[in-house]
Design a protein that fits this description.
Elements lengths: L1 H30 L1 E7 L6 H16 L4 E6 L7 H9 L5 E5 H4 L18 H8 L2 H8 L6 E7 L4 E5 L14 E4 L3 H9 L3 E4 L5 H6 L5 E4 L1 H6 L2 H4 L2 E8 L3 E6 H5 L3 H13 L1 H21 L3 E4 L4 H6 L1 H5 L3 H12 L3
Parallel strand pairs: 1-2, 1-3, 6-7, 9-11
Antiparallel strand pairs: 3-10, 4-10, 5-8, 5-9
Bound molecules: beta-D-galactopyranuronic acid.
Length: about 325
C-alpha cells in the first residue's frame, strides 16, 4: 500500500514538473517579441555601441518582453535598401545617416546643408530643440517613426591623388557620395565628379581607381580602412550630418501604446551613451590615421568652400529656406 502511494506521488510530481515547464515555455513564447535593428557599421563603431545601449534599455524596461537584435556590418543590406525594408516592415529598426533618408523624406536635406551649424554644440542645440522633435515626428507619412539622433562629427574630403587645399584642387576628381541628391549637388558645386555608391563598395572602388576619393568623418575614414588607400585628408568639414534611429511604423503599430512609449524613451536615453562613445572613438581614429603617416590638411578658413556651395542654398524651396533660417536662429 505504502509503495503504491509513493509511486503515485512520484508520478504526480513528475507530471506537475512537466506541466510547469510547458506552461513557462508557452508563456514565454507568447510574450517575447524579437525585433531586428540594421546597422551598417561594425560592432565596435560608436553608432553600433549606441544601438546596443538602446536595445539593452528596451529589454531592461520591458522585463525582457521586447528584445532588439542588432545586426551590425550591413548584414541586412546597405543603407538605402535597409530604409526601404524598414518602410514596408521587413526590418523593424535601423540607424542611418540622414543623407540617404532624405530620399524618402526630402525635408531632411535642410538639416544636412553645408556649413549650416556654427559648431557641434549648435547642432545639438537644434536637434534637442522642438525643431529636432518636429523632424522626428515628420517621418510618419513616409512610414517611419523617428526615434533619436546620434553624433557623426563632421564630414571632409579624402582622396588618393593629391592634397586638397583649394576648391580648384577638387576639380575633376571622382568623389563617391552617399545615395543622396544633395550630396551629388554639393560635390558638383565644387567642380568634382560625384559618384553615388553604397558605403561597402567604396574601399575597393578607391583601391582599383574607379573613384579617386570620398568624404566622411574621422571614425568612418578609419574604421573602413579608406585611410589606407586614400592618403590625403582635408579637414574642410563641409557638413555635419546627424545620424538617426528610425522604426518601421508597421512594426510600431503592432505594439501597445505603453511599449511604444518605452521604445521612444529608451532611444532618447541611448543618445548620451552614443555621444560619449563617439567622442572617444573620434580621438582613437584621428590618432591612428596620423600615426599611419597620412597627409592631413586643415583649411585655415572655410570661406572659399562655403561660397562655392551657396547655389545649394539658393536652390532650396521657400519652406526649406525657412527651416534653415530657424536652425540658424537657434542659440543666437
Ligand atoms: C557614415 C555613416 C553611415 C553611412 C556612411 C556613408 O558616416 O555613419 O551611416 O551613411 O557614412 O558614407 O555611406
Amino acid at each position: 500500500m505504502k509503495k503504491t502511494i509513493v509511486v503515485f506521488l512520484l508520478v504526480a510530481l513528475l507530471f506537475t514538473g512537466i506541466s510547469c515547464t510547458k506552461k513557462e515555455e508557452v508563456t514565454e513564447s507568447v510574450e517575447t517579441v524579437v525585433l531586428r535593428l540594421a546597422e551598417t557599421h561594425g560592432a565596435d563603431y560608436p553608432t553600433t555601441q549606441g544601438d546596443y545601449e538602446f536595445a539593452r534599455l528596451v529589454e531592461e524596461r520591458t522585463d525582457g518582453r521586447i528584445k532588439i537584435e542588432v545586426y551590425p556590418g550591413s548584414q541586412l543590406g546597405e543603407e538605402r535598401a535597409v530604409i526601404e525594408q524598414v518602410q514596408f516592415g521587413a526590418i523593424d529598426f535601423t540607424r542611418v545617416s540622414i543623407s540617404p533618408l532624405a530620399a524618402f523624406a526630402p525635408d531632411f536635406n535642410a538639416l544636412q546643408m553645408p556649413y549650416l551649424y556654427r559648431s557641434p554644440e549648435h547642432m545639438w542645440e537644434v536637434l534637442n530643440s522642438p525643431i529636432g522633435d518636429e523632424f522626428l515626428d515628420s517621418l510618419i507619412p513616409a512610414g517611419f517613426v523617428g526615434l533619436s539622433w546620434f553624433d557623426s562629427g563632421a564630414r571632409s574630403f579624402y582622396n588618393s591623388v593629391r592634397p586638397i587645399k583649394t576648391v580648384d584642387d577638387l576639380s575633376g576628381l571622382k568623389i563617391r557620395v552617399q545615395e543622396s541628391a544633395l550630396m551629388v549637388g554639393l560635390v558638383e558645386a565644387l567642380g568634382a565628379v560625384a559618384t553615388p555608391m553604397p558605403f561597402g563598395e567604396v574601399y575597393s572602388a578607391i583601391q582599383t581607381g574607379v573613384i579617386d576619393g570620398a568624404e566622411n568623418n574621422w571614425p568612418s575614414y578609419y574604421s573602413t580602412s579608406h585611410f589606407e588607400v586614400a592618403g590625403y585628408y582635408t579637414l574642410d568639414e563641409h557638413t555635419r550630418v546627424p545620424e538617426i534611429t528610425i522604426a518601421s511604423k508597421i512594426s510600431m503599430d503592432k505594439l501597445s501604446a505603453e511599449d511604444q512609449k518605452i521604445i521612444k524613451q529608451a532611444a532618447k536615453d541611448s543618445m548620451a551613451f552614443q555621444i560619449k562613445a563617439w567622442a572617444d572613438y573620434e580621438k582613437v581614429a584621428e590618432d591612428a590615421v596620423i600615426a599611419n603617416g597620412n597627409e592631413i590638411y586643415r583649411l585655415p578658413d572655410n570661406a572659399e568652400f562655403q561660397a562655392a556651395m551657396q547655389p545649394l542654398y539658393d536652390a532650396l524651396s521657400d519652406d526649406l529656406q525657412d527651416v534653415v533660417a530657424k536652425v540658424r536662429a537657434v542659440g543666437k
